[in-house]
Amino acid sequence: MSPKKGITLGELAKKLKAELVGNPEIWVKGLNTLAEASQDEISFLSRRQYIKQLDSTKAGAVIIGEKYKDLASGNLIVGKDAYLLYAKATQIFKELNQDPLKEGISELAEISSSAKISSSATISSFCKISDNADIGQEVQIGSGVVIGESTSIGDKTVIHSNVSIYHSVSIGQECIIHAGSVIGSDGLGFAREGQGWVKIEHLGEVIIGNNVEIGSNCSIDRGSVGNTCLDDQVKLDNNVHLAHNVQLGRSSVIAANTAIAGSTTIGKNCTVSGACGIIDNLTITDSVHITAGSLVTKSITKPGTYTSGTPLIEHNLWKRNAVVFKRLKDLIKK
């Protein structure tokens, strides 16, 4: 591994557009927690519970919010939102240390003669790029990726290894798709015929906006009739399932192991926590926040925070409560 490249605190604060309290000449090479940071690393404080670690940290500097800066000594990078500054700092250190792009198409990739690929794109080994695919400028495609017929990939999008993208999928600019995800597969659509099932062919597409990030091992089904759509700035964690014709509004975030059933629409700036289930054909308005483990069975028309399910309790108490729950109707009548 090549040695990490660094940056002075003065230059880092300038790039972050933040106030520096301390020595601008200090050289730092990365980020770490308050407990584990060394003198050539910076750390950050974004939660009150870690204030006690400020006195013992060995970090060369701490990113900290304005309201907490009087609690810390040493070199500080100060701003209104320490967590946002931390996020921007991670990008700076990644840019400093990432290897330069190796542009071009691997000899081990299978490329259709009708595919349109920018000269600045990177196509790794064992990829398959199908007929009439359109790959934009500075796109990076990892090994083992399959791009289906008539699919388009916008400029500066990064697709990690072993992603499968079916036909007629549109992906915008500066997206990130992590390893193992599948985009454009058929959803669950069958009609009864006697004791069997007749498949409903999915004739729609998947349309993904700009600056969307899709975690590893996600499944996004194509529309059955009409399209599945993810607006700009949508973020999906790992193992998220979006069924056919789901619509996600701008800047909504879905955490891991959540499944959203067909034809449900989620508005802008929503958050859905981990292990949630949302049934089909619902509409959830803008700025709704659903807590972990919730099951959503009806539309939500008012912004706010919503919770379902019961918190963890001791098992024997849960069993006694379950017995009472089954009798609630009779008890209410009494």
Structure explained in plain terms:
The protein is of the alpha/beta class and 334 residues long. The protein folds into two domains: 7-97, MurE/MurF, N-terminal domain (Udp-n-acetylmuramoylalanyl-d-glutamate--2,6- Diaminopimelate Ligase, Chain: A, domain 1); 105-306, UDP N-Acetylglucosamine Acyltransferase, domain 1 (3 Solenoid). 13% of the residues lie in helices and 30% in strands. Strands 8-11-14-17-20-25-28-31-34-37-39 form an eleven-stranded parallel sheet, with no helix packed on it. A hairpin with a 2-residue loop joins strand 22 and strand 23.
Quick structural gist:
With 334 residues, the chain is α/β, with parallel strands linked by helices. 13% of the residues lie in helices and 30% in strands.
Task: Assign a percent range to the helix content.
Answer: 10-25%
| CATH architecture descriptor name of the largest domain | 3 Solenoid
Helix/strand-derived category reads alpha/beta
Average pLDDT confidence is: 94
The total of beta strands comes to 39
The CATH superfamily label of the largest domain reads: Hexapeptide repeat proteins
